[in-house]
Design brief:
Helix content: 40-55%
Strand content: 5-15%
Family: Belongs to the DeSI family.
Protein name: PPPDE domain-containing protein
Pfam families: Peptidase_C97
Oligomer: single chain
GO biological process, one term: proteolysis
CATH superfamily: PPPDE domains
Radius of gyration: 18 Å
Shape: globular
CATH topology: endopeptidase fold (from Nostoc punctiforme)
Structural class: alpha+beta
CATH class: Alpha Beta
Organism: Pelagomonas calceolata
CATH architecture: Alpha-Beta Complex
Length: about 240
């Protein structure tokens, strides 16, 4: 009965489409400290909800906690970068991220790589069963793939925000918080550069993408290896 209800509800939902990718950097936005983000994020209603087994959870991690990424980004972008958030979206033990491709993962692997989440936003129960979730992800591959990946304008945070909205039937994290403290961190990274410097955006983008992705994948691979080793011990 529950599966039938999920399918019926999902079919009745209006289709949710991928937001358009920005092409221009936002001016004068971003650069918040982690402490400022925490102070606001803790007041967001969906950050206070207990988590059920089929709830859609958008988790926010600080991938600059190693003390190396934020200074590297600050140097590359000519602005002070205090922290850098990374979002994932999960239902139960299944979780997904996006770094050039949609990556199935687990909450424990991400926590090993990035530390415990700064926030866990509960968007409510998934309107899809596991097969339905797989179909949603399959359709999203058209907009979230290696060609479409852009560190500034279509990254893991845009993906998790979008996926959470789809799986929950339209619910989302408070927009002001997301825009001021998460999404805009990347969309405003070059706001301090003069206009003539922005003509070099593509070169800068490739440089910064390499800095972040290499840093993250190093932690990611280490976490995967640790989880694989731990599973050997328990079996």
């Amino acid at each position: 009965m529950r599966c039938l209800l999920l399918v019926t509800t999902a079919c009745a939902l209006a289709p949710i489409t991928t937001p358009p990718k920005r092409t221009e950097f936002r001016e004068g936005i971003g650069g918040a400290t982690k402490e400022q983000a925490v102070a606001v994020g803790e007041t967001v209603e969906c950050a206070k909800k207990p988590i059920g087994p089929r709830d859609v959870i958008v988790r926010c991690y600080d991938i600059s906690s190693d003390g190396k990424l934020a200074p590297a980004l600050s140097l590359a972008t000519s602005k002070r970068v205090h922290w850098f958030p990374k979002l994932t979206c999960s239902v139960g033990d299944r979780a997904w991220a996006y770094d050039g491709e949609i990556e199935p993962t687990s909450n424990s692997v991400v926590a090993r790589a990035a530390g415990e989440p700064v926030f866990s936003f509960n968007l409510g129960e998934s309107v899809y069963d596991d097969a339905g979730i797989d179909e949603v992800l399959r359709k999203m591959e058209a907009d979230y793939n290696e060609e479409e990946y852009d560190f500034f304008f279509r990254n893991c945070n845009h993906f998790a925000d979008d996926l959470g909205r789809r799986l929950s039937g339209g619910n989302e994290v408070d927009r002001k918080f997301m825009e001021d403290f998460v999404i805009f961190e990347s969309e405003s990274l070059l706001c301090n550069m003069a206009s003539f410097q922005r003509s070099m955006t593509m070169a800068v983008t490739r440089q910064i993408q390499k800095i972040v992705i290499v840093s993250w994948r190093r932690s990611w691979k280490k976490a995967l290896a640790e989880e694989a080793e731990a599973s050997k011990v328990t079996t």
